[in-house]
Write a structure and sequence with these properties.
With 495 residues, the chain is an alpha+beta fold. Helices cover 61% and strands 8% of the residues. The chain is built from 17 helices and 7 strands. Strand 1 and strand 2 form a beta hairpin. Helix 4 packs across helix 5. The longest helix has 29 residues.
Length: 495
């Protein structure tokens, strides 16, 4: 029932959203070329309700007030928070407060963790009222974790499906058949969603779907742990989510060390790095599926052993973290601590300065009458950052700015980076700097933050003026420099 209703609803949503503009502006870190609707979570939520209704009609004795609040109302309210954000973006603080409110409603209605069992020695500790706090934190963390990994076609849906397979086994093995059957219902809804979401995706689950799944996973894991004892039933999902947990942890550490906002979206997640290495979206997601499947098998082994294998697999995951750090270049290698600290300090100062300029440009966008005036303000930002040249590729052609201080002298070795932008008529930015004074890490960050600043400012101008950013043909000609002054892109734009 969930699979059939999911197929029907999501197909209708795809058909309805096709060709309609999305209220939410695209972010520069998104990699899809075409507009993809991000309200697929509606189909998942409706399919869950349909499948659950079919079950409860057949077995009404399972339905009570506690079930209605914790397994139906709570996840649907969390879906509502995300769906609202999909339609009309909310601030991060507002979303977090609403998530905490929903999680608290669930926890105080009979779903609070009562005791914690140490998986290493089997000793249980009663935590009293702290159980409500632990339940709220658990649900909110899982809600945001699923949302964070939703960065490439099919990834969040596939990992959530694996979690549901685990929960079916965990819940049934714990004698909790109600959450096991609801996990089965959710698996059916996810299969229907993945039919439309597997690369190339026709629809995304959006924040609504991610919040719903994360909240439901959190609730079902607490139910599966006998509603009180945190043992193998709660530890197993942590292993199943090992890959996204490692990815998010490394991401937060990296942003903190670089002085970037913790919740800032970027292109540095594992799936982005696989794409940067030349993997297609489909090959990237299949690779991550294999790694997640290994984590799922470890989770099943942890549950079957009643937690006795936790120390062994904890060591395996630790080795996996070391492998990922070195394979994907999350941190510099062969650096002394002093060298590393000095480099990080420089990067932090540079990033804070660029972010400040970017905020100014975004506010200034509302004062600009035309896109040409916005481009002139962007040139001031480029001048302050001592860029050598910037080329903005738009649908009508290109605009090129070159630093006035570079005329009349021979530049030293240049480095360039092309950052694609999939936002309306704007296609990308080429950032050119002199290598001297711009180490690779600093230049890479500078190019990313400069592009982000332009995208946010252009989005602010477009939203304020209620029109798309388009440059007049005569302004393109005026903005061009002589052919002799144009610095051609390097053969490999990644260097």
């Amino acid at each position: 029932a969930a699979f059939a209703s999911g197929l029907l609803v999501i197909s209708r949503v795809v058909r309805f959203a096709r060709g309609r503009e999305q209220n939410r502006q695209k972010c520069f870190h998104q990699t899809h070329q075409n507009t993809v609707p991000r309200i697929g979570g509606l189909g998942i939520a409706v399919a869950y309700l349909v499948g659950g209704t079919v079950f409860f009609l057949g077995r009404p004795e399972f339905f009570n007030l506690e079930v209605a609040v914790t397994l139906v109302l709570g996840p649907m309210l969390m879906f509502g928070v995300g769906f609202w954000d999909d339609l009309r973006p909310l601030g991060a603080r507002v979303k977090l407060l609403m998530q905490i409110a929903v999680a608290t409603l669930i926890a105080v209605n009979g779903l609070a963790i009562e005791s914690v069992t140490n998986p290493f020695n089997g000793v249980s500790v009663q935590i009293g009222l702290w159980g409500v706090v632990a339940s709220v934190v658990w649900i909110v963390v899982l809600t945001n974790l699923i949302n964070i990994i939703d960065g490439i076609d099919g990834l969040a849906g596939g990992i959530s499906l694996m979690l549901m397979i685990l929960l079916i086994n965990v819940c049934a093995g714990s004698g909790r058949y109600l959450p096991a059957l609801l996990a089965l219902v959710t698996a059916g809804a996810l299969l229907a969603f993945l039919y439309f979401n597997f690369p190339p995706a026709k629809i995304y689950m959006g924040d609504g779907g991610a919040y719903f799944l994360g909240c439901l996973i959190g609730v079902l894991t607490i139910y599966s742990s006998q509603k009180g004892t945190v043992a193998a039933a709660l530890v197993a999902p942590i292993f199943a989510l090992g890959l996204p947990i490692i990815d998010v942890a490394l991401t937060l550490i990296r942003r903190a060390l670089k002085g970037l906002p913790i919740f800032r979206a970027d292109r540095r997640h594992l799936h982005h790095r696989l794409v940067d290495k030349g993997y297609s979206h489909r090959r990237s997601v299949l690779t991550l599926y294999v790694l997640s499947l290994i984590c799922l098998l470890m989770a099943l082994a942890v549950f079957s052993s009643k937690g006795q294998l936790v120390p062994l697999f904890s060591g395996v995951l630790f080795v996996g973290v070391i492998f990922l750090v070195h394979s994907f270049g999350f941190v510099p290698e062969k650096y002394s601590l002093k060298h590393l600290w000095d480099e990080l300090s420089d990067v932090r100062r540079e990033s804070r300065y660029i972010i400040t300029l970017g905020r100014w440009l975004e506010l200034e966008a509302e004062r600009c009458e035309t896109p040409e005036e916005l481009w002139e303000n962007f040139q001031f930002l480029a001048q302050k950052l001592n860029l050598f040249q910037v080329r903005l590729a738009v649908e009508e052609g290109e605009l090129i700015w070159r630093n006035s201080s570079s005329y009349g002298r021979t530049p030293s070795e240049l480095v360039t980076r092309h950052v694609p932008i999939h936002s309306g008529s704007i296609h990308g930015l080429d950032i050119v700097c002199e290598r001297e004074g711009n180490p690779e890490k600093v230049f890479e960050l500078k190019a990313e933050l400069v592009t982000e600043a332009w995208v946010k400012a252009a989005n602010r101008w477009s939203q304020h003026r209620r029109q798309e950013v388009r440059f007049a043909s005569d302004s393109l000609e005026d903005k061009r420099v002589d052919d002799s002054a144009i610095v051609p892109p390097l053969p490999d734009a990644s260097h």
